[in-house]
Amino acid sequence: MGRKNSKKRKEEKRKPQSGHNKVLKGTLDITRSGMGFVTIEGMEVDILIRPADFNTALHGDTVRVAVKEVKSGNRRMQGFVREVLNRKRTEFIGQLQINKGFAFFVAETDKPMPDFYIPQESINGATENDRVVVKLVQWDTDGKRPVGEVVSVLNAENSNDAAMKEILLEAGFALQFSDEALEVAARIPDTISTEEIKKRKDIRDVFTITIDPVDAKDFDDAISFRKLKNGNYEIGVHIADVSHYVEPDNELDKEAYQRATSVYLPDRVNPMLPEHISNFLCSLRPKEDKLTFSAIFQLTPKAEVKQYWLGKTVIHSDHRFTYEEVQETIEKKAGLYAEEVLILNDIAQRFRKKRFNNGAINFSSQEVRFKLDEKGDPIGIMIKESKEAHQLIEEFMLLANRTVAENISKIKVNGKPLPFPYRTHDDPDEAKLLPFAAFAKKFGHTFDTSSPDAIAKSFNQLLKDVHGKPEQHVLEQLGIRTMAKAKYTIENVGHYGLGFEHYCHFTSPIRRYPDVQVHRILEQVLNNKLNPDKKLEEKCKHTSERERAAMEAERASNKYKQVQYMKNYLGEEFEGIISGVASFGFWVETVEHKCEGLVSVNSLLEYDEFRHVETDYCLVGQRSGKKFRMGDKVMIKVVAANLTKRQLDYEWVVTGELKEEESVIPMKKASRKNPK
Questions:
Q1: Could you tell me which of 38, 36, 40 has the C-alpha nearest to residue 13?
Q2: At what angle do helices 179-186 and 251-259 cross, to 10 degrees?
Q3: What pLDDT, on a 0 to 100 scale, did the predictor assign at position 75?
């Protein structure tokens, strides 16, 4: 089946131990009241830190905390911060207050933090009461204020720009690269030496193309194709050789590791690497010689892998395609390089079919994209769906990623597996799966939960059966929520969702740091010069955390754009689908715009009292029996759009389509205050 029947390892939770100044590592969470709590992985109880004991630590920082002696009968452990190991963020948005020869910076945050002292030479042209981005540059543990410098002045007229920057900063992503990192990047030669080319497989004469979004600039993957005399095809997956340019442990590498990922917001990219590297040096632009790390396969017309080669190459892309251009060629079976494109697509579709037959789960995906004006304000919403052109690239990238991981998994050091950042995805969470299976049964869909393989087959059968039916949306969304989160780890438990025993990320080193790590380790293996990284698991946890932070930033920015867009429709009514239910209300996603807002249970009190039934994912009227269930179609009115909170509020609109037993007659207005 290509999947390991992995069992989740339940980490034994450490009990809090008393002891004077026991030192532990954790993350500081500062509440609005100013009190701090450090959460330690594996410990059930967090450690209380009083403000006087923060020792320059700020909210979200990774710290080393010393536990004070626990007094008899006091369950709460208390401690003080010994050392700040890693700051979640060093840049903040706020207001500048200027005095003679210096200034103070007051951050805009709901987490209490001290004002920054800004020396005269670090004000950088800002004026009194300007809204600015300030970087923390020094904070000694001698009781003095933190020292900062103004990085940029925010344009008061461009609230959108400030909002996007704040989202990035909240997530812990720096807006600019340090001078030291930029200096390292500037020293990298633009030209490729003859000596470097001689070290590599030269395939510049082999037909090669890139396929990317129309607005992309960082082309990090290319595909080569040629027919062989034996009737097979040679297909190469060529990835930008970032590790050739970014050397381990210099300032550029440290900053790339700290970011760990590029962040894609609706109107900008916050890159992992400076643009000179992302969009010029490493980008596989057409008609240019480029250095790559490649996986080259010999394949039969039936998509059987006969052999493969891994190594460093130099390529020359013949053409830069957009996904739309390739899709048109696939649909019309005509166009530039149509023969090559159609063969590549046929091979990719065979891989895709085989993958799903072997247990990969076929969740469909839609991506909301915003059409923006010159100010970055949304003027339209588009739904981007995965088509064959996207699947063409996806399947060859999956093949390369799987092959590299499979190759590395065989390597042993002193009888143990070589530490390697696998991309893993564990079995579904049983606690979430069982109620989902019970819910699916109400729609007539049976679910076999006897084994991981049986679960995967049941998912695929369900997804096939519900396609085009009213319950499709709700069952897809709930099904995704039962899945474990994918992560980076040296524990190779396989990738459940893809149905692979071995998997890693090799194909996007311009925008993902784990791919850079994979390239470096693969090069060590190919050169037989192994240097195992004993801290790799810790680094995997960091990159997984940064990936989650980037996803949260992307969601927050999309939500901001949704609110910005729906402000134009206040008071208007739209058809929507209930996308989530809670005790305090239900969320509705509009069919037309895919914009989600909350219908508060308080707004329903004039009709009935509603209680939350968790097992049925619904709210039920106590008097009328009216149900609001996930997946139901409803009419809503847009009543509020709060940009600061990134929140849309909807009200339910009563239609004439209610069943007799569900009739909801408005109660007296007094019922809002005293519904009983």
A1: 40
A2: 120
A3: 67
Q: Residue 655 has what pLDDT?
A: 82
Number of H helices, E strands in the chain: 14, 33
- 234-262 burial, b for 16+ CB within 10 Å, e for fewer? bbbbbbbbbbbbbeeebbbbebbbbbbbb
Name the stretches of the chain with pLDDT < 70.
Answer: 1-21, 69-75, 365, 656-676
Provide the pLDDT for residue 141: 80
Euclidean distance between CA atoms 551 and 172, whole angstroms: 12
Q: Minimal CA–CA distance to 591: which of 352, 368, 404, 439?
A: 368
Nearest alpha-carbon partner for 291 in 403, 190, 404, 183: 190
Determine, yes or no, domain membership for 6.
no
In angstroms, what CA-CA distances link 270 with 131, 517, 540, 592, 603?
21, 20, 21, 29, 40
φ/ψ of 314, rounded to 5, equals: -130, 130
Looking at residue 154, its pLDDT comes to 93
CATH of the domain at 60: 2.40.50.140
Given 355, 382, 408, the domain boundary residue is: 408
Both 80 and 208 in one domain: the answer is no
Residue 171 contacts residue 258 (beta carbons within 8 Å) = no
Residue 139 lies in a domain: no
Q: Would you say residue 7 lies in a domain?
A: no
Helix %, strand %, coil % of the chain (to 5): 30, 30, 40
Measured in whole angstroms, the distance separating CA 138 from the mean position of its chain's CA atoms is 31
The tally of domains found in the chain comes to 3
Looking at residue 14, its pLDDT comes to 37
How many other CB atoms sit within 10 Å of the CB of residue 481?
A: 12
Where in the sequence is the domain holding 661, given as residue range(s)? Answer: 570-672
| 312's tokens | 């460093």
- Note whether 63 and 141 are within 8 A (CB): no
626 found inside a domain: yes
DSSP of 219-274: --EEEEEEE-TTS-EEEEEEEE-HHHHS-TTSHHHHHHHHH-B-EEETTEEE-SS-
Q: Judge whether 553 and 171 are in contact, CB under 8 Å.
A: yes
